[in-house]
Design a protein that fits this description.
Strand content: 15-25%
Largest sheet: 6 strands, parallel
Bound molecules: guanosine-5'-monophosphate, manganese (II) ion
Distance between the termini: 28 Å
CATH class of the largest domain: Alpha Beta
Radius of gyration: 20 Å
Order of helices and strands: HEHEEHEHEEHHHHHEEHEEHEEH
Length: 343
C-alpha cells in the first residue's frame, strides 16, 4: 500500500499543530467490526493529540461487538440525534472512515452536507470514492480501513503511540474484514502490523471468540434454516442466493447482526463463483454479495442494486418487494453471465 506523502503532510499540518480541533469521525450504516475498530482507533490517536473528538455511526453496531473497549465513545445518531447535530455543526474537521460516499450515512448525510466549513478527510478502502474531500486516503488495496489507519498512525507518530486498547480495536477491524485473515490483500505489511499489535498484549484467541463464537441459539438455528431451506442455485450450481423475510427472522428471534456471514457460506462449495443474500427490512430489501476470484460483485452491485463495495464483497438495496427483487437478481445474473461477468 502506497500512502501519499502529500496527504500525510496535509494531515500533519491539520492535526499536529497547536490548534485544538473539534473533530467528528463518521462511519457507515450498519457498522461492522472495521467501521467501529477504525473509528475508535482514530478517536484514540486524535484525542492523544489533544483534539476534541466525537465518533458517530448512523445506527447501532451488532451485539457481537459490544465487548470492545472504548465503545462507550461511539455516538449512535438514531439514539442521540440532537447531540450529533450539535457536534457536526461545531466540527472543524470531519473524518469519514470505512465509507466511500456520504450516502452510506443515510439520513445523517444531510446533516453532514449542512456543515460547509469543515475540512473533510476520507480514510477508506472501498472502490470508487466520491469527490468532495480535502484530504484523501483511499486505498482499495488495503484489506481493511483499520490496517490503513494503522499505517497512517505508524507513518505519522510511530507505533509507540498505539495503546493495548487501540491495538485491540485495530485488530478487530483487520480480523473481521479479512474473514480472520483469509480473504484478499494479505500482504507482508499486514502481518507486520499484526505482529506489532500482538506485541501490545492483545488476546487474539479471546478476540476471535468474542466476535465469532458469541451468537445466540436463534442465530445458529436461523443459519441452518437459511442454508437448508432457502439457499437456491443458478448457472449449474455456480451462483447461489438466499433470502429472509421479516416473518422468517421473527420466527428465529432475529437481532441485528444475526445474518452476518451467512452470505459467505455458499462459497465453501468448491465450484461456487458468486453468492447473494436478500434480507427484508421495513421499507426495502438489503442485498449482500460475495464472489471468488475475477467475478466482480462491486460492478454487479453498482449496476443492478444501487450499491457497491469491493470486488469480492459488496452490498446494495432494492425497493421492490422481496419476490420481485429475487426475480430481478436472477435476470441480472443471466445478463451478467452473458456478458462474461462470471467467467
Ligand atoms: P455487507 O454485505 O457485509 O453488508 O457489505 C459488504 C461490503 O459492501 C462492505 O464493504 C460494505 O461497506 C459495502 N456495502 C454494503 N452495502 C452497500 C451499499 O448499499 N452501498 C455501497 N456503496 N456499499 C455497500
Ligand atoms: Mn472495511
Amino acid at each position: 500500500m502506497n500512502i501519499s506523502e502529500e496527504s500525510l503532510q496535509a494531515l500533519r499540518d491539520l492535526l499536529c499543530g497547536d490548534v485544538r480541533r473539534n473533530i467528528v469521525v463518521l462511519s457507515h450504516i450498519n457498522p461492522d467490526g472495521d467501521a467501529i475498530g477504525s473509528s475508535l482507533a482514530l478517536r484514540e490517536v486524535l484525542v492523544s493529540c489533544g483534539h476534541n473528538v466525537t465518533c458517530v455511526v448512523p445506527n447501532k453496531y451488532p451485539y457481537f461487538l459490544d465487548w470492545i473497549s472504548g465503545l462507550e465513545n461511539i455516538t449512535i445518531f438514531k439514539n442521540e440525534h440532537d447531540r450529533v447535530v450539535e457536534a457536526v455543526a461545531g466540527a472543524d474537521v470531519i473524518v469519514c472512515a470505512d465509507m466511500n460516499m456520504l450516502s452510506r450515512l443515510e439520513e445523517l448525510s444531510d446533516i453532514i452536507a449542512a456543515n460547509t466549513h469543515a475540512v473533510r478527510v476520507l480514510v477508506d478502502h472501498h472502490l470508487t470514492p466520491e469527490g468532495g474531500f480535502d484530504i484523501v486516503f483511499s486505498h482499495p488495496d488495503s484489506s481493511s480501513t483499520s490496517f490503513l489507519v494503522y499505517t497512517i498512525v505508524e507513518r505519522l507518530f510511530g507505533t509507540d503511540i498505539i495503546s493495548r486498547q487501540m491495538a485491540e480495536q485495530l485488530y478487530v477491524g483487520m480480523m473481521t474484514d479479512t474473514g480472520n485473515f483469509a480473504f484478499s490483500f494479505l500482504t507482508p505489511e499486514l502481518f507486520r502490523a499484526v505482529a506489532v499489535l500482538a506485541g501490545k498484549g492483545i488476546d487474539i484467541p479471546q478476540i476471535y471468540n468474542n466476535v465469532y463464537n458469541s451468537f445466540t441459539e436463534g442465530r445458529a438455528r436461523l443459519f441452518g434454516y437459511t442454508i437448508n431451506r432457502k439457499m437456491k442455485t443458478l448457472m449449474k450450481g455456480t451462483v447461489a442466493y438466499m433470502s429472509l423475510t421479516e416473518a422468517e427472522m421473527r420466527r428465529f428471534w432475529f437481532q441485528q447482526g444475526d445474518s452476518e456471514g451467512f452470505v459467505n457460506y455458499p462459497l465453501t462449495i468448491k465450484k461456487m463463483k458468486m453468492s447473494a443474500i436478500f434480507i427484508e427490512q421495513h421499507d426495502f430489501v438489503r442485498a449482500s454479495f460475495r464472489s471468488r476470484g475475477s467475478v466482480d460483485v462491486d460492478v454487479f452491485a453498482r449496476r443492478y442494486f444501487n450499491g457497491g463495495g469491493h470486488k469480492n464483497a459488496a452490498g446494495g438495496k432494492s425497493f421492490l418487494p422481496i419476490d420481485e427483487t429475487i426475480q430481478a437478481y436472477i435476470d441480472a445474473v443471466h445478463e451478467f453471465a452473458a456478458e462474461g461477468g462470471l467467467s
